Amino acid sequence: MHGSLYVIATPIGNLEDISLRALRLLGEVDLIACEDTRHTRKLLAHFQISRPTLSYHQHNERERTSELIDKLKSGMNIALVADAGTPLVSDPGYALVQEAIAQGIQVVPVPGACALIAALAAGGLPTDEFYFAGFLPSKPSQRRARLVALAGINATLVFYEAPRRIKETLADARAALGNRQCAVARELTKLHEEFIRGALDEVCEAMQTREVRGEIVLLVGPPVADASEAMDRESVRSIAEEVAALMRDEKLDQKTALKRVARARRLSKSEAYRRLMAERAAETIASDDVK
Questions:
Q1: Which residue from 234, 152, 156 is spatially nearest to 197, judged by alpha carbons?
Q2: Does pTM top 0.85 for this prediction?
Q3: What is the pLDDT of residues 115-155, one digit of tens each?
Q4: What pLDDT score does 94 carry?
Q5: Nearest residue to 132 (alpha-carbon basis) of 69, 88, 71
Q6: What are the backbone dihedrals phi and psi of residue 278, each rounded to the nearest 5 degrees, phi first?
Q7: Which secondary-structure segment (H or E) carries 157?
Q8: CA–CA separation, 42 vs 260, rounded Å?
Q9: What is the number of other CB atoms lying within 10 angstroms of the CB of residue 42?
Q10: Which residues pair with 106 in a beta bridge?
Q11: Residue spans of the chain under pLDDT 50
Q12: What angle, 0 to 180 degrees and rounded to 10, lies between the N-to-C axes of helices 166-177 and 269-290?
């Protein structure tokens, strides 16, 4: 008989957030597959659990999946854990779960801590509908294009972000999404847990002079109904088109055409240029996807 694969959530900070069921199963399984064996062994040692561990991360996922499937088919019960939180949520594990299901192996979820849910619970933004977009691209042009592509989703947007990029991401979000409400959730469940809430303009300004550290979840509220914001979002979608029309119809160079568009929309030249580049990046990505 096949063994079972237990997908077990572990704490994202506060060790008291692990469930009794998770502790029992971690002590009973034959093997624990984890991102970083050193990190997981510290968690196990804290709860006086001694079980074999095996590394399973993005760099060895393909080889390890085959190995773990063989072990499961031989009858071993295996736990899959991430370094923190729920496995597969912006963490490795999908390939293993997918193959286990294909092989008729029982996959058992053991729920617990998850950073995006914790942030939503206390972020103060609508939770009836939300869209989890994971990590945004690190390359600025791709990040802006991705944000532009998400602009039409009528739900709270949830992102994971690195502290070194959060200031740029906030500025890009303001340019691509308008001045929506947002919340930056930092170091959730840990000693220095913090929420910075407000409009994107306000949060951008508040973050500029700060040295940001720790794990971050960024929440951006759904599109606002205010007419000025609707016009602002329309500008994000149409600046490239309007510049192209001015260049074609009035024989203007790009710089002059963009200057005129910026003036008409009451934008600074740098802001208009950033939005133009974001649109063009989005168009390039869309074109590449078609190819």
A1: 156
A2: no
A3: 999 999 999 999 999 999 999 999 999 999 999 999 999 99
A4: 96
A5: 88
A6: -65, -40
A7: strand 156-161
A8: 60
A9: 11
A10: 4
A11: 227-230, 233-237
A12: 90
For residue 288, what pLDDT is reported? 61
Q: Are strands 181-186 and 216-220 parallel, antiparallel or unpaired?
A: antiparallel
Residue with tokens 């602002």: 232
Torsion of CA 220, 222, 226, 232, to 10 degrees: 60
Q: Alpha-carbon distance 235 to 212, whole Å?
A: 31
Q: What counts of helices (H) and strands (E) characterise the chain?
A: 11, 10
What's the confidence (pLDDT) of residue 234? Answer: 47
How many C-beta atoms lie closer than 10 Å to residue 86's C-beta?
24
Instruction: Measure the N-to-C terminal CA separation of the chain; round to a whole number of Å.
Output: 46
- State the Cα angle at 243 between 242 and 249, rounded to 5°: 85
CA of 244: how far to CAs of 252, 265, 268, in Å? 9, 16, 19
Read off the pLDDT of residues 244-256 as tens digits, 9 standing for 90 and up. Answer: 888 888 889 999 9
Q: Please identify which residue in the block is written with the tokens 């500025």.
A: 171
Rounded CA gap, 214 and 160, in Å? Answer: 11
Nearest CA among 40, 32, 31 for reference residue 10: 40
CA distances from 279 to 107, 220, 272 (A): 42, 20, 11
Which amino acid makes up residue 10? T
